[in-house]
Amino acid sequence: MASFLYHLGRYALLIWRVFSKPEKVSIYRKRLFDEMVTLGLDSLGIIMIISLFMGAVITIQTSANIDSALIPAYTIGFTARQSTILEFSPTIMALILAGKIGSNIASEIGLMRVTEQIDALEIMGVNSGSYLILPKILAAVVINPFLVVISMFVSIGGGYMIAQFTDIVSVPDYVYGIQFDFRPFHVNYALIKSVIFAFIFTSIPAYQGYYASGSALEVGKASTRGVVFSSIVILIANYVITQLVLI
Amino acid sequence: MIEVTGLYKSFGENKVLDDITSSFEEGKTSLIIGASGSGKSTLARCLVGLVAPDEGGVLFDGRDFLGMTGKERRGMLKEVGFLFQGSALFDFMTVEENIRFPLDMLTKMSTDEKAERVQFVLDRVELKDAHKLFPSELSGGMKKRVGIARAIAPNPKYLFCDEPNSGLDPQTSIVIDNLIHEITQESNITTVVITHDMNSVIEVGDYIMFLHQGKNWWEGDNKSILKTENQEVLDFVYASEFMKKIKA
């Protein structure tokens, strides 16, 4: 418990430093765009591949589990859409990005720590926490909602592909299903989650990397901790947000 | 001038610095020497605030560094250059960007002035054509030179070098030592070098502090160290067969 409180306090202090006034806004702006490319555009490929196949699989599995004649065929499209918008695109994608981006951030910052690059920033009088971490958090918070929306379209498109090329569900039934009882608020709910999860899967690995010490082995451990802890916190936050927003 | 008074630092039960008092004058290359684990790097880190000492004072030209607020300290550090043991160049930046970085962050120089300054310091460390190279493309000696160039780019009043010639061949070591010495004299900088290299001691040691068991065990210059009768200093200076032959 004491260890948990120690890390919580140190994490809060780091975040406080991260969001303090930047030394040179122009430098931060350039870093922000660089991070948007690194964290956002470089993740687009994996997001689209996973979303396409998950959308297809959700459609097939829903169809396989509906064998009652009383349940209309459009339920398959409806279920695929709801699964995608409510959980798959915002949450599962966040867990995947926690693995990809989180390990990248923790190892990058951790390596800078053990090779004294962070000390070099501090000696120059630069707020190293803010310089290194703030652009990453802002870039992820800005870019993640776009990734989630793209994931939604691609995933639902994956289901459409199944409808188009197999006889599991007809195209008109699938298209009717994905439009049935559509509530725009559910998209807002997903976008709220995407912003919060982006903050989590950047700040926690950054914290782990920032306080890494010793050797490359420690950087590896910090990277693993960053991914594991951010994944757990994403799941807890998902539960809390769902309870607060949807119910 | 940097003055250190009654500096103590312990890590748990391990007392690393024990009542260190000394002063490092401007325009001179001051060396802190001692065996591995004697507290040299910890002392340097305490001097620039990377490690908080348990007790004691550090004055930069009369300004109490340890008593400053975080903001005042960051302002003060703009006058400090630091060459790290592993050079600590930013991996994601080219040589030019590494050197320009402190100018971007700490000064209000125009783009042209910064380009001119980068070229000047690169010329000074004899790396005229290295602008576009990344640290991973540099040799150990080149990294040290770029580290020095980055440290002196914003015209610091104080320069700290942690093991500047570790991992370098003897010839390159001497080049780096002389470079630091020349820059110190040219710009009248207060330079503190952490080393255990005897060549450095003999070549550039205007003032030498010998640390032993965390204490300021002996101090003098590069001439007096060869004549001292302090047994611990003698053991350190004449540790190699080569130095023993010279003494004989």
What does this structure look like?
- The complex is a heterodimer of chains A (247) and B (248).
- Chain A is an all-alpha fold and 247 residues long.
- Chain A has one domain (29-245).
- Chain A has helices at residues 2-18, 25-65, 75-114, 117-123, 128-165, 171-179, 184-210, 216-245.
- The longest helix of chain A has 41 residues, at 25-65.
- In chain A, 45% of the residues are buried.
- The mean pLDDT of chain A is 92.
- Chain B is of the alpha/beta class.
- Chain B has two domains: 1-79 and 158-248, Rossmann fold (3-Layer(aba) Sandwich); 85-155, no CATH class.
- Helix content of chain B is 38%, strand content 25%.
- Chain B contains nine helices and ten strands.
- A six-stranded mixed β-sheet of chain B has the order 6-7-8-3-9-10, with helices on both faces. In chain B, strands 2-1-4-5 form a four-stranded antiparallel β-sheet, covered by helices on one side.
- Chain B is globular, with a radius of gyration of 18 Å.
- The chains are: A mainly alpha (247), B alpha/beta (248).
- The interface between A and B is medium-sized, with 16 and 23 residues.
Q: What is the element layout, followed by pairings?
A:
The complex is a heterodimer of chains A (247) and B (248).
Chain A: H1 2-18, H2 25-65, H3 75-114, H4 117-123, H5 128-165, H6 171-179, H7 184-210, H8 216-245
Chain B: E1 2-11, E2 14-24, E3 29-33, H1 40-47, E4 55-60, E5 63-64, H2 70-77, E6 80-83, H3 95-106, H4 111-124, H5 140-152, E7 158-162, H6 170-187, E8 190-195, H7 198-204, E9 207-212, E10 215-220, H8 231-237, H9 241-247
Parallel strand pairs in B: 3-8, 3-9, 6-7, 7-8
Antiparallel strand pairs in B: 1-2, 1-4, 4-5, 9-10
Helix pairs in contact in B: 3-4, 3-5, 4-5, 5-6, 6-7
